[in-house]
Structures are given as C-alpha cells and as structure tokens.
Amino acid sequence: MSDLGNRFGAGQSTVFLALVLFWLAGMVLAPNLMMIDYALRPNLPPAAMGGPDDTYSLANILYLAGEPTHRAIFFKTIWASGLVALVTFLVCYPIAFWMAQRATVGQLSAALLLIIIPFFINEVLRTLAWFIILAYRGPLNSVLMNAGLIEAPIRWQGDGGVLAAMVYAYILFMLLPIYNAIESLEKAQIEAARDLGASTWRIHARVVIPHAKAGIATGFVFTFMLAAGSYVAPSLLGSPGSRWFTEIIYNWFFEGGDWNRGAAYALVLLVLCLTVVLVTLRLARVNLADVAT
C-alpha cells in the first residue's frame, strides 16, 4: 500500500484500490455468494419462494452423494484433470528448459511466436480444429492409413481426444510459468553440477526442478483448475462414456431447469478443486504468495 501511494500518490492509489475492490466484490464475491444461496435452497416455483418450504438445507449437495453415476463422473473429472496437468507438464517442461537455457534470442522469439499465435483464436475454434483432426474420416486417420499403421479408421473421440485438446488448450498456462522460473536459474549452476559428474537426470531432479518448483506449482494449479472447469472440450470431443462433471452442471442449469441443484454441484466442484490445489501446494512446499508472483 505504501509503495503504491509513493508511486501514484494518495488520490490515484485510492481510486485503484477502490476499482480493485469493486471488481472483486462484483465479479468474484457476489456470484459465489449467490451460488451458495442457490445451492442451499430448494428448487421452488416463484409463488412458493419465501414461503415455509423455502428453507436452507444440504439436500441438493447430498443428492450428489446419493447419485452413483454423477458421483463417479465427479471423481473421474478430478483425477482426469490431474492427469491433464501431469501430461501438460511432461510436454511443457523440456520446451521450457530449452527456451530458458539453450535457445538463442532468435530461436526464443520464433518459439514464443509459434506457441502464442494459435491462441489468438478463441478456445471453441481451437477445439473444433481438434474435432476435425480426430474425426473418423479426418486427417489423422488418413495419414495413419496411408502410412500403413492402421487398416481402418479409429474413433479418437472420447477420453483420448479430450485429453489431447485440453493439453493443447492449456499449454501456455503451464509453459510460461515454468519458463519464467527456469530463466532465473544461473547457467553456472548447471555447468557446476555437470562438472561434478552429475547426470542429466540428476541435474534436473536436484537443481532445475527444485529451483523451478514455484513455476511448476503455478502451472499445475492453473491447468488443473481450468481442466476441471472445462466444458467445451468434453462436449465437443467426448463420448457418452467420457462425460465431464461440467456437462452435468450445464444440464441441470439449461436442460433440467434446476438452478439450485446445478449450483450445488458447481459448489462441490469448486470446494474440492480448491482443496486439491491447497493440498498440492502444501506437498510441494510452495506458498500461495509464490504462485501469485
């Protein structure tokens, strides 16, 4: 606060803080309070609202516990989101290390350009591109058949297609935090480890990854949360056997017309996602302040 006041003066600092608080109250706090209110109240016709039946209870949340299909999809969404974060990390870590420690200025600029340009297109169109690539008569099957690797087209839609699309959709949220963390690592430390006889695996496990753990944790948090809350990729690339929990929430709101149960499902997903994130940060010994910076 004092730094902000010294830089911009008391008047401008007050305006900035007021705008931030207004944004947090209007865009974060109010919607979540409304979601909690809806989740704890029954789905009643307008005439019955405010009547004796309009009381707070955990019935909508407990409904999820008693619905085995929805419960299974819920836990599947959680572990699948963790898998998305893990695969995204495995894809991004070598690229981030090369960009931060090996690439020349020209190579780094070209790599960033090639990675960022596709994200000028919105997520729906990028997911539709994956839908075309993975289609039954799409380019992927054509290439594999022409190469003699498969004899008949394969239906890629399902868990595999959703995983591929999500890894691609959220790659920047993993790549850039890891790149920023590894970039601050002195190359002399890596060279010193190599001179002392450390293998490549040991250098990464004992030097690079511990140094970059804040960036890795940030990437995992962003990617996990985005994957757990994703709707576009599962709805376009999923199959009946690969439903995502967000699709059930959507159905409660817009097809079932039960906003209260939909809000309860969304609240459970939010709480468990936050729990998973906090536990992950605790295990990685990374503070929220490190993630925020």
From TrEMBL:
Domain ABC transmembrane type-1, chain residue ranges per copy: 74-280
Q: How does it sit in the membrane?
A: Multi-pass membrane protein
Residues crossing the lipid bilayer are 15-36, 78-100, 112-136, 162-182, 214-233, 262-284
User: Would the keyword Membrane be found if you checked this record's keyword annotation?
Assistant: yes
Q: Which InterPro entries match?
A: MetI-like (IPR000515), MetI-like_sf (IPR035906)
Can the keyword Chaperone be found in this entry's annotation?
no
List, alphabetically, the Pfam families matched. BPD_transp_1
Which SUPFAM superfamilies does its entry note? MetI-like (SSF161098)
Keywords recorded for this protein, A-Z:
Cell membrane, Membrane, Transmembrane, Transmembrane helix, Transport
Cellular compartment(s): Cell membrane
Homology family? Belongs to the binding-protein-dependent transport system permease family. CysTW subfamily.
Name this polypeptide is given:
ABC transporter permease
